[in-house]
């Protein structure tokens, strides 16, 4: 009797502590985590995404069309990030005749626009037009003119270096940022564009400048064209009495002033720190693109930036700070400063033009280098070229998809490494939404529906960022482990030892072996 | 030198200095920015950071003060703008705001970032909606329900220091490099008996019929110096601020310093340098003499100072027409009471609104309200009571009282102490718990000791000859402190450790008894067979 009841007691201790207690302890101290699609997240391949774009070749005869289309196809054969869907067509007799007869390229574009819909995103028309001075002509619309089949090589170059820029697209999805990604702002649903007019000596110089109007007129019409990408809010402010010592050196020259102040380019970055302190960029709910017009005081004018001991020759002295914004120096003329009451009227067009150029770069529109035989119509107004907007849409879609994927992958990795991170229902939903949107955006990109793909990728990007940045993830992160052990050890060590040791006896008894060896000496 | 600015924004800076005989000196700075646009997208002199916050949360009027110290109304008279000790924030939202409470919370959280103050602790449990005590000072359409858009909160525990002053200075167009703000040296400023910085934003009519609206952003600093701290009764800018005045802000359209020299007759002193102008005017039957300095952007330092003729004169100060004190009653950790004593020194009755605002952990019962010891009093003309809810809403009592002439009215209300959850105790809980100050809003019939600006005025010269029938004022009484029952916070950990040890000690023997058998073990060497036989024989023999 005694043997079996003792064993039953031992078994019930084991039952209560190990079979009920341990799982209960495990369950109650578990960190709450919603089940996540880990398999999907780990199967993301950022290098696999590609975007389809439509291209129509319109030529006078079938042979030219085939030749041009074939060459373009060959040129883009090796790029896996961009898939071109090329259609070959013959120009209608009437359009052919008008294109040959109109003198002006802009007019010719309008003629093409009358027949084809040039407003659609992600579509480019390559049209043959005999009376061209160059091999290839590119304007602001989604039309490229070429003279004849001999221009095919140049067309391929133009498409590669100006229009589609597969190298920038590669950079958008790669691990390491390429040179353009290092300059442009990270993707986002909207930006504030803040113009700060910095006027260090309001008592010595009067500045006649309507910052608000200039913003609305110039920057406003520029960003309106980018509506499909981001929301923009325009703001302006004046910052007075912000003194900054450029450590400029006076250099005599033959100008109206008889001198200029030389500033080394490296010194300029320090101005940003001073600006940041006053510009109040942190109060905005969205990231702010900073534009600053620094009015150079009369006794330091004109300011001249030196790059590697060489003057930077530009009508406006300016510099750009990647992912922050741009600064333009307003140099009053000698005549302005020598008036009885010095007053300066800034050359608004020139200054705002410089800001636009900086904004283009900060938003991701690249500079176009020269291609022999090709002519790029210079920008006549502030608005960006239509195919540049398409190019931006492609870059941003890819960037957002890959960024969302990377964010989710790092989150998954973190969850594997740090067991204390909580994933509540909201974060879980946002992760699932991001995964879903990534798939949709990828499919839409392959289909060539660029705008929808951009929107989906933005949803994915924002959902992934919200999930990653959610403060609830950190709720238990700092619960120290030693505190847990301080409680577990005094409780579990003395209790678990006898119970675990009794298991041996219990097992022996269950197998029917004698528990106590008779000690016979 | 000329002023050059482009937009119609206007910036003015002013200092008002008033000796508070016999021992104190009141210095009040105000920086007024009047902005044209009602939207802050393109700002000129107005701070964009504040504008961004106001337009994002659609705030019509905003008052934020951060104060250290207690204004002593009975000794010092009335300040231009009174402020509750700690942080005080109240705002009226635009009628377009649907969910005022959410906006309020977001606003306070954002302002907390902007001013480095713990305003993010403002939540529904310490916010009240005053019904009668506060009225908007700006141009707000009166045909709408204003009260429902108002939120008021104080944080009496907030400590105000340099980290609040620096962001406050950044809102000024001249920052701290030029003009009067360069006097605001934090080392000297915080060496005072009382200091308060504030931001007040309101809408102002541009023209008489109010078709156009300007926005006035007024930044204020109030300082009360103690002659004992500056070590002399003669004061000068160098003694008060550590430096002279380097001139006006080049952006300001007017930079003026006003020194109240009315007390010159009783305590004669000499101002140096001599003022540009001396104004003598009457306001509500009391004479005031102001010395005015019109400051230009000088390039040399200016040091305004005062030298007293005799230094050993004692004067009995006359208390202002209305003054008050507040204290906590009771002993032990169960019941207590708040007493507010309000004295009317005037020969006519004064109508006041008293707003008592008790946190949820200090439940006050309306049934225990006694006025001059009586439950029912004829003095109460109207009353509003909103009971608190645990962890959600504070207790809020408003009384419209008519104070009889030459009398002291005592308002007593009892409270119970509440046990808090252990996470609700603030750090250093044994320090005690602050009760915010009560608001007293009065229409004073006399302008004695009254320095506030008239409601339509924004600069100090608006007080000249501003005689009215009533002089509205909102005062804050002193706060109070109670000590709630506070547990020993290391207790739970000790209990856990102790309980674990006891369980561990008890478990071992229990487990052994249940699962092990006690077997007697023979002691000594085993008995051999021969011995057993001998033993047997021995037994037989016996």
TrEMBL record, chain A:
Coiled coil: none annotated. One of its GO terms (biological process) is attachment of GPI anchor to protein. It comes from the Eukaryota. One of its GO terms (cellular component) is GPI-anchor transamidase complex. The lineage of its organism: Eukaryota, Metazoa, Ecdysozoa, Arthropoda, Hexapoda. InterPro entries: PtdIno-glycan_biosynth_class_S (IPR019540). Belongs to the PIGS family. This is (apollo) hypothetical protein. It is found in: Endoplasmic reticulum membrane. The chain crosses the membrane at residues 6-26, 485-503. Keywords: Endoplasmic reticulum, Glycoprotein, GPI-anchor biosynthesis, Membrane, Transmembrane, Transmembrane helix. It holds the Pfam family PIG-S. Pathway: Glycolipid biosynthesis; glycosylphosphatidylinositol-anchor biosynthesis. It comes from Parnassius apollo (Apollo butterfly). It is a multi-pass membrane protein.
TrEMBL record, chain B:
GO terms for biological process: attachment of GPI anchor to protein. InterPro entries: PIG-T (IPR007245). This is (apollo) hypothetical protein. PANTHER family: GPI TRANSAMIDASE COMPONENT PIG-T, GPI TRANSAMIDASE COMPONENT PIG-T-RELATED. One of its GO terms (cellular component) is GPI-anchor transamidase complex. It comes from Parnassius apollo (Apollo butterfly). The lineage of its organism: Eukaryota, Metazoa, Ecdysozoa, Arthropoda, Hexapoda.
């Amino acid at each position: 009797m005694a043997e079996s009841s003792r064993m039953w007691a031992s078994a019930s201790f084991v039952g209560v502590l190990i079979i009920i207690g341990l799982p209960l302890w495990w369950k109650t101290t578990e960190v709450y985590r919603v089940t996540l699609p880990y398999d999907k997240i780990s199967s993301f391949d950022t290098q696999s995404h590609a975007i389809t774009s439509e291209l129509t070749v319109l030529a006078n005869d079938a042979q030219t069309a085939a030749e041009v289309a074939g060459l373009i196809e060959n040129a883009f054969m090796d790029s896996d990030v961009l898939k071109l869907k090329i259609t070959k067509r013959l120009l209608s007799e009437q359009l052919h005749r008008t294109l040959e007869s109109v003198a002006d390229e802009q007019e010719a574009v309008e003629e093409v626009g009358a027949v084809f819909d040039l407003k659609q995103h992600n579509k480019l028309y390559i049209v043959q037009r005999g009376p061209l001075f160059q091999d290839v002509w590119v304007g602001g619309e989604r039309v490229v003119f070429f003279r004849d089949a001999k221009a095919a090589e140049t067309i391929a170059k133009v498409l590669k270096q100006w229009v589609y820029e597969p190298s920038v697209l590669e950079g958008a999805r790669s691990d390491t940022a390429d040179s353009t990604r290092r300059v442009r702002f990270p993707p986002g649903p909207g930006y504030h564009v803040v113009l700060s007019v910095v006027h260090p000596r309001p008592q010595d110089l009067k500045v006649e400048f309507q910052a608000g109007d200039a913003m609305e007129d110039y920057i406003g019409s520029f960003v309106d064209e980018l509506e499909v990408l981001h929301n923009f809010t325009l703001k302006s402010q004046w910052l007075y009495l912000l003194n900054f010592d450029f450590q400029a050196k006076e250099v005599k020259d033959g100008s109206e002033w008889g001198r200029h102040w030389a500033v080394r380019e490296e010194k300029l970055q320090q101005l940003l720190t001073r600006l940041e302190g006053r510009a109040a960029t942190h109060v905005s709910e969205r990231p702010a693109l900073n534009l600053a017009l620094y009015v150079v005081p009369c006794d330091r004018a004109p300011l001249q930036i030196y790059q590697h001991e060489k003057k930077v020759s530009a009508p406006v002295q300016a510099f750009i700070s990647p992912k922050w914004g741009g600064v333009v120096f307003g140099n009053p003329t000698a005549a302005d400063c020598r008036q009885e009451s010095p007053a300066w009227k800034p050359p608004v067009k020139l200054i705002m033009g410089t800001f636009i150029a900086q904004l283009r770069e900060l938003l991701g529109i690249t500079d176009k280098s020269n291609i022999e035989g090709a002519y790029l119509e210079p920008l006549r107004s502030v608005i960006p070229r239509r195919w540049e907007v398409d190019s931006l849409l492609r870059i941003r879609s890819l960037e957002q998809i890959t960024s969302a994927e990377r964010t989710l992958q790092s989150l998954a990795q973190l969850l594997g490494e740090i067991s204390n991170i909580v994933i509540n229902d909201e974060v879980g939903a946002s992760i699932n939404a991001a995964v879903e949107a990534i798939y949709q955006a990828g499919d839409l990109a392959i289909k060539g529906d660029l705008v929808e793909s951009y929107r989906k990728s933005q949803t994915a990007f924002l959902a992934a960022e919200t999930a990653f940045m959610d403060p609830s993830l950190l709720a238990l992160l700092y619960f120290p482990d030693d505190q847990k052990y301080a409680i577990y050890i005094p409780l579990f060590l003395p209790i678990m030892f006898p119970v675990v040791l009794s298991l041996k006896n219990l097992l022996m008894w269950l197998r029917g072996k004698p528990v106590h060896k008779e000690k016979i000496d | 030198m000329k002023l050059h600015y482009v937009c119609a924004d206007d910036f003015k800076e002013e200092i008002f200095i008033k000796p508070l005989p016999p021992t104190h000196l009141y210095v009040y700075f105000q920086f007024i920015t009047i902005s044209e646009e009602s939207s802050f997208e393109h700002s000129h002199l107005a701070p964009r950071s504040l504008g961004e916050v106001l337009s994002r949360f659609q705030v019509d009027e905003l008052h934020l003060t951060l104060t250290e110290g207690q204004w002593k109304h009975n000794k010092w008279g009335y300040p231009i703008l009174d402020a509750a000790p700690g942080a005080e924030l109240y705002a009226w939202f635009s009628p377009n705001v649907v969910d005022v409470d959410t906006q309020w919370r977001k606003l306070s959280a954002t302002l907390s970032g902007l001013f480095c103050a713990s305003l993010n602790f403002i939540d529904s449990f310490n916010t009240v909606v005053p019904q009668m005590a506060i009225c908007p000072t700006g141009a707000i359409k009166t045909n709408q329900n204003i009260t429902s858009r108002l939120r008021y909160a104080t944080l009496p525990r907030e400590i105000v220091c340099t980290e609040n002053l620096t962001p406050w200075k950044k809102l000024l167009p001249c920052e701290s490099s030029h003009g009067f703000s360069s006097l605001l040296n934090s080392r000297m400023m915080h060496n005072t008996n009382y200091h308060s910085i504030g931001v007040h934003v309101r809408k102002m009519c541009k023209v008489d019929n109010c078709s156009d609206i300007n926005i006035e952003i007024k930044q204020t600093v109030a300082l009360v110096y103690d002659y004992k701290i500056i070590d002399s009764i003669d004061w000068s800018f160098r003694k008060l601020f550590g430096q002279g005045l380097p001139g006006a802000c080049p952006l300001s359209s007017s930079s003026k310093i006003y020194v109240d020299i009315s007390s010159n007759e009783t305590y004669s002193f000499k101002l140096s340098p001599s003022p540009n102008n001396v104004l003598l005017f009457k306001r509500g039957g009391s004479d005031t003499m102001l010395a005015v300095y019109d400051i230009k952007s000088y390039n040399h330092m200016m040091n305004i100072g005062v030298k007293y003729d005799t230094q050993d004169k004692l004067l009995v100060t006359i208390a202002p027409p209305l003054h008050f004190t507040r204290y906590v009653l009771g002993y032990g950790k169960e019941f207590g009471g708040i007493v507010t004593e309000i004295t009317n020194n005037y020969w006519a009755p004064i109508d006041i609104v008293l707003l008592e605002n008790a946190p949820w952990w200090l439940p006050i019962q309306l049934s225990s309200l006694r006025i001059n010891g009586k439950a029912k009093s004829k003095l109460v003309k109207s009353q509003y009571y909103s009971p608190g809810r645990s962890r959600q809403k504070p207790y809020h009592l408003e009384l419209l009282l008519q104070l009889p002439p030459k009398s002291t009215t005592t308002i007593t209300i009892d409270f119970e102490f509440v046990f808090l959850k252990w996470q609700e105790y603030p750090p250093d809980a044994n320090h005690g718990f602050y009760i915010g100050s009560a608001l007293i809003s009065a229409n004073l019939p006399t302008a004695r000791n009254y320095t506030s600006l008239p409601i339509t005025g924004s600069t100090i010269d608006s007080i000249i000859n501003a005689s009215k029938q009533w002089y509205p004022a909102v005062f804050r009484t002193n706060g109070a402190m109670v000590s709630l029952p506070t547990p020993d916070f290391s207790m739970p950990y000790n209990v856990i450790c102790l309980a674990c040890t006891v369980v561990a000690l008890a478990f071992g023997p229990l487990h052994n008894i249940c699962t092990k058998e006690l077997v007697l073990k023979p002691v000594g060497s085993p008995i051999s067979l021969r011995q057993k036989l001998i033993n047997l024989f021995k037994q037989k023999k016996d």
